[in-house]
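for ur thesis appendix - Phosphomevalonate dehydratase large subunit-like domain-containing protein. copy paste whatever u need, i formatted it the way the template wanted (i think)
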Amino acid sequence: MSNTTTLDQGTMRLSEEELAMLRGDKGAAVREAIEFQIQVGNFFGATRFVPITHAHVMGDIEVMGDGGLEHLRHMTDQHASCAVPASSNAQCMHFHADPRMTQDPGEEEKEKDILSRYKTMRIAATDSCIPYQTVYQPKIGEHVAWGDTGTVIYANSVLGARTNFEAGKSSFAAALTGRTPEYGFHLDAARRGTIHVRLQAQMRDFADWGALGKIIGHPNQDYFAVPVIEGYDKTPMSDELKHLGASLASYGSMAMFHMVGATPEAPTAEAAFGGAAPAASMTVTDADVQAVFDACQYKDGGSNIVVFSGPQLSLYEMQSLSERFEGRRVAPGMTAVVTTNHMIYSDAKRLGYVGVLEAAGVTILQGVCFYILQRLSKIREENGWTNLISNSGKLVNTITAHRFNTVLRRTADCVDIACTGELR
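the 3d part is after this line
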């Protein structure tokens, strides 16, 4: 890292506490963290830091690689400890005995090393990409430092908290210093709406919300684009907004949206736009949503897999799936996979949902999201999987890098496909 006597603070103006960190008064790990954050702040033109209340760190061996693991080891060797409560995002290792999804033993040991170092740093290894549903729900106006695009867009939009997409190293640095540079979605200006969306579609399923995210996000790929959705006459549930946000972040790299009358900074469209005129407008109908499904075509040959993941499932999604699979079996030649976090798995097991799903032949993976599984491309090849069918708009977009042919379908259709083997 840079020498503290010569580090250019640039646009950043530091408090006495931050200057003490920069001098090394709080240890080498904190000094290196704030040096890095000053560089980030300078790049984005920030003038100061804002205190945060919570950090959600990005750290698994598939994402971090060996370089990231060495950085984590370096921090723990310097006795790094989080200044604020911190949780961890989904991991890439499922630690599950399913022979269809074997993972590299050497990489598995690295993942275990990461998890053990979390403990020494006071990072709660929640292994969850839905911390807003199970771990911590920041309040409106509360500054946090969260990694994972789906967590960030939910925090900004649904909870009214303030965070940018914090990269892996940035999220760890924020956890150590208890602050983050004030730029982007920490500022009022970035949070104002820019795109007016008139929603006329009925929105019958989670997959519809994912399709809506594609319709809005794909033609408007801009981190600072903020859709304002108006016209929906119901109160959307947390899981519906979860699927919408994850899809907007995946297709459009967006970090925030407003839904008039539903999200906290959009009591009216005028309030959501901050008095400014929208830069663009669009209308979304049932026909537009159906066109997204119709565009998903199956490929012949090979086996197929149905995946409920991306983001991890909530307790109510687990309940609903167990009801849909009860008394049925996954068809020969088909695979069905569910991912959730440890807390929800524990409750779902106690309530009987896990037992029903496993009796139906569904594989349940804890603490992971499917698309970041280590050696996933090889797993696809080993199983001869051709089509991946899911009700997650995010998953069918993100996982194409692993050369699946992805198909978005509504939840009931996904269950029927898994249990009949018929590609509907």
